[in-house]
Design a protein that fits this description.
CATH topology: Signal recognition particle alu RNA binding heterodimer, srp9/1
Strand order of the largest sheet: 1-4-3-2
Strand content: over 45%
Largest sheet: 4 strands, mixed
CATH architecture: 2-Layer Sandwich
Distance between the termini: 55 Å
Number of domains: 1
Organism: Paenibacillus hemerocallicola
Number of strands: 4
InterPro entries: Glyas_Bleomycin-R_OHBP_Dase, PhnB-like
Radius of gyration: 14 Å
CATH class: Alpha Beta
Helix content: 10-25%
Order of helices and strands: EHEEE
Protein name: PhnB-like domain-containing protein
Structural class: alpha+beta
């Protein structure tokens, strides 16, 4: 018999200042997985997507008023 169950994933998004994003990205990516490195993309001045060591994925974006 075959089971077609999807693995549950938890996800979080944050919109923070550059300094807080950099620190959070460093902590979350330790012993985790980087899906998109923290950097500039066509849709965001600064964006990063990581999975932490517990399996929670995080999407970090730059606050719109932060330079």
């Amino acid at each position: 018999m075959c089971s077609l169950s999807a693995k549950k994933r938890r996800s979080r998004s944050t919109n923070r200042s550059n300094a807080r994003n950099d620190a959070a990205y460093e902590r979350l990516s330790q012993n985790g997985q980087v899906y998109m490195p923290l950097g500039e993309y066509p849709f965001s001045r600064k964006f990063g997507w990581v999975g932490d060591k517990f399996g929670v994925t995080w999407q970090l974006t730059q606050a719109s008023n932060d330079q």
